Amino acid sequence: MDPVLFFIFLATCAVPGTAGALFKPGEWYKSLDKPAWTPPNLLFPVVWAFLYISMSIAAARIGSYDGSVIAIALWGLQICINTLWSAVFFGLHRILAGVVIIGLLWVAVVATTAAFAMHDWIAAALMVPYLGWGTYAFALNLSVWQRNRDIVAVSD
Q: For residues 134 and 130, what is the distance between their CA atoms, to the nearest angstrom?
């Protein structure tokens, strides 16, 4: 694994990480009806730090392979989609749009993982925790939307 590539991918992960820091849960999120299986807010930055490191290692492994352009492009796509969620959900309070974004993110992560598997099984395995978290996050966001359909989003 090329350490320069790793740090470039990790720096890229700072974009969605910063979005998460800028658009915090706040009082609005506290007021929502959430399922009992909602994790405590303190768990999110710990999980995301682990996931960003893991997915950066995976991408750095793939980046050195010939013919990995599609796999790396898919990695870039999923990180862009990832960046949208905090602003849409926490910033704009658009719960259903958050469900859609996480659904798209899940598809992008599956595609990225599959593309990585074509080059390196370790890189694909490093994406599996992210896929698991994305599945959980989708279910959580969907449940929050189902429980709070009457909540009005922030107006434009």
A: 6
Contact yes or no for 141/95 (Cβ under 8 A): yes
In DSSP notation, 19-65 reads HHHHS--HHHHHHS---TTPPPTTHHHHHHHHHHHHHHHHHHHHHTS
What is the per-residue pLDDT across 22-71, written as a single tens digit (0 to 9) for each? 788 888 888 899 999 999 988 988 999 999 999 999 999 999 899 999 99
DSSP-derived secondary structure letter, 150: T
SS (H, E, C) 79-141: HHHHHHHHHHHHHCCCHHHHHHHHHHHHHHHHHHHHHHHCCCHHHHHHHHHHHHHHHHHHHHH
User: Residue 113 and residue 71: Cα distance in Å, rounded?
Assistant: 8
Domains and CATH numbers, the chain: 3-147 (1.20.1260.100)
Integer Cα distance of 15 and 12 in angstroms: 6
Report residue 117 as tokens.
């598997």
